[in-house]
Amino acid sequence: MTRKLPGLDLPPLRSVVEGIAWPGIPENSAAHLLAACFQLDRSQWWTPEAIQAQQLCQLRALLSHAVETVPHYQGRDYRRWLRDSDRDAWTSFRELPVLTRRAAQQAGDALRAVQLPAYHGQVAEGQTSGSTGAPLRYWTTPLAQAFWNAIVMRDHFWHRRDFSALHAFIRASPDTEVTPTWGPPSSALFAVGESAVMSSQRTTAELLKWLVDLNPDYLRAQPITIRSLARLALDGGLRLSRLKEVRTVAETVTDSLRKLVHEAWGARIIDIYSSSECGMLALQCPVSGDYHSQSEVAIVEVIDSNGMACEPEEIGRVIVTPLHNFAMPLIRYDTGDFAEVGSACRCGRGLPTLKRILGRRRNRLHLPDGNTTWPQLSSMPWHQLAPEIERFQLRQEKDFSLRFLYEAGAPLPVDSLTLIDTALTNQLRCSLPIRFERLDMFPVTEAGKLEDFVSSIDDEHEVAS
Asked: Is the CATH number of domain 364-464 3.30.70?
């Protein structure tokens, strides 16, 4: 009988040395990944003070590089910060200017390092999905990707996933047949199970049929897709008997969506908070369900309208400093997201917590009295109000009026539109003029994103911020 020991619970490593099956000897990049996982397994239990001390060490390395090689960071504020003592560094760091998304777009090449340290690898260029409007061009390195992969593995370890299981992915890429691997980073370390991919451009009915035939153990997709699938599954009584977990990315996950998925399939949702330009930012705690900031790879701040740090239960802007992307340092970058700060987690980890990720400025409804709120439209009983709707989006125009766009095979009858109008008035707790517009197919971003509420009123604020 084996005894349960503390630390990572790993399957046998994939060995690349002929004749050596156990203990496995991984190839070099996999060994680096495993070394990072080993350190992350220990640092998560450090005190917040110990974590901040190491963050400060890495931040000094990043900013020292930035002021020497990145044109945007040639200002005196950044050089002055490097001279501050450790005692004063955090206070003065929070006084450094916030880099807005618009400012990052306008800076362009001025945010790119003209030289990189050894071992960071060849620079790769990418751009964000453009769901906020104009996409942001960014640069990254294989080293930054390696830290992304380490946090992906942490997520697997936290939630004790079975690496031999069948994994389904719905994403903005071509369909694939069942293949004998999950792909990297998991496959670099272990012999993993099968996976299959279906394009998020498929209809909900096509996706659900594929899932029922596949009957996976794990499913990863965006919340808007999961919501449609779960509603259709409930209506048709279509169960996924083996499904243990739904993994979500890219959009806000609400309590009502978690409840819907559990009712439809008896599965739980595990969410990840990340962005293309900033990397992995927060993982859902396996104990409390709150989001733990990934402090080993990024400094995550939540600040109020006065630029002060928010306290637990307060909501503010998410400001991020990725710690390892030397190709394009983002110092105090305003992600555009809002989040609620959490308290110390009962799991015992020293990593800070976020209670909720609420969405972006553009996801706030502006009320005539000057207040704003985040509509929770996914909590509404859409399968009862209008089961014909495949997907929808509620938009607020600059005159405060609303436009409800919906995808359906035919226009909804007047009775259904009246029901939706009444339900939205009750949900939003205000009465605003609304008009309806049917679409044959909803336009989505290349990444497959479709937010259920977007306000045009915040566009002017985004430009000014």
From this structure: no
